[in-house]
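User: Structure please.
Assistant: Input sequence and predicted structure:
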Amino acid sequence: MASEKRWTQIVRDGATIVISILLAFGIDASWERFQARRDALDSLERVVAEVGQARTEMAGGEAFQERLLVATELLVDVVLELEPGSIVTVPDSLLLGVLGWQVVEVSTNNVASFVASESFELLGDVELRKAIGRWIPSLEDQRDDQLNLRRLKDEQIHPVLRRSSDIAGAQLTLNAMMLEGAHSAGGGVTEIFVTDELVALLVRASFQEALDRRQRDAIDQLADEIQTRARAVLRRD
């Protein structure tokens, strides 16, 4: 009888130990899940701040970029009305679109770190994960297209203009505009010798400028989606 009681006590003690160990593991696991969730939300807050800062920086250069686009479109309208071999005198402001350029460079460090981390998969909002995942590729695509547009202007349009036109005055106007702000006025006029090559290049530049506008709009919409969905998650959690 005493032996039976002793074995019963041993079983009870063993069960108590096992239960204690399981509880400890459970508490540790719960804490780790809580901490992982907390880390994910902290990272998400940094992503929201970084995306917001990017929107601010891009909006700051939007007026300048829009002026370049409008100038290029107006110049295209002028040259399309002329026969090859014509000489036309235009305000320097119409040359700003082909002489100027802008490349967007914003920080993506927090987004990149978050996407590469285990915390990223803890986001329950699948659409938010998809939106954040598209952020850096969208910016990279825009930057690549802007660099291609810059090369088009520097390596093809500028040499064609310089061969038959004096664009030095227009370049000075552009430099002053960049220093003084997107709305500065002034400048003289420049004579342009119209050729088929020049017209084709200007039309191509105008198309790429318009593409850049659509990309900027799409990126802004993506940023808005990221911020809206992320804030909903942060409020809920």
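The first strand starts at residue 87 and ends at 91.
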